[in-house]
Amino acid sequence: MELIVVPGGAFVENTYILKGSESDEVIIIDPGSQINEIEERLSNIKFKKVVIINTHAHLDHIYGVEYFKNKYNAPFLIHQNETPIINVMADAAMRFGLEEFSNPQIPNVDRFITENEELNFGGLIFNTILVPGHSPGSLCFSFIKKYNKEIDQEFVICGDTVFAGSIGRVDLTGGTNMNDLVSNINEKLMVLPDDTILFPGHGPETQVGIEKKSNPFLLGYA
Ligand SMILES: [Zn+2]
Ligand SMILES: [Zn+2]
After folding, report:
1. Cα of 149 from ligand 2 centre, angstroms
2. Which end of the chain lies in a sparser environment, N or C, as judged by fewer CB atoms within 10 Å?
3. Helices (H), 101-142
């Protein structure tokens, strides 16, 4: 299995590239504005098909979607609750006024995905976990050994819900409040086995057990 993290772009967002070793399909999760870096990593992989799946629709994670959709004729999947954020993509880009966001292209969604859905792409089977709070349709993608023989350690691609030592902001477009996000993280993610790796939308990977013990935002939750 390939699991490649491509950090870069305006807010040093992480794009994830995944592919099972027997598959000719590559999964791109959250292609942001680091388009050149993503292309460079893709050039080292053999594949015929691409699918683009997003954890959520904030500009730093969705900026590159339309580019890769066009280039590879790839379908784009996201939760329906992210639609209002997709629709204001151009406004968000203007507000930031950054060179990296100078040409925002709103992508069409090819398929809405919901919570507790089993997805099968790139030779991998994974499940969606809905963790709203940072945005209304924030999805995490859980890869477990039971369905994927190639996986050594179970992992979750968790978008901007939880980070190493921190959690997502709730004051951006579509955010709710801290209590909502914290309780969703605790009820949906912190219940996973302690050695589950968390791959967030920004910053380094961490593990469920580490965050349960030391994340200041999650401590003291009853
Ligand atoms: Zn975000
Ligand atoms: Zn982000």
Report:
1. 31
2. C
3. none
Predicted local confidence at residue 219, as pLDDT: 85
Q: Give the start-end residues of each E strand in 138-193.
A: 139-143, 155-159, 162-163, 166-167
Ligand 1 mean position, distance from CA 21 (Å):
30
Ligand 1 centroid–CA 197 distance in Å is: 20
Residue 10: nearest ligand to its CA? 2
Half-sphere exposure (CA, 13 Å, Cβ side) for 31? 30
Query: pTM above the 0.85 mark?
Result: yes
Q: How far is the CA of 201 from the centre of ligand 2 (A)?
A: 6
Q: Please report, for the chain, the start and end positions of each structural domain, with discontinuous segments joined by +.
A: 2-214
Superfamily of domain 2-214: Ribonuclease Z/Hydroxyacylglutathione hydrolase-like (3.60.15.10)
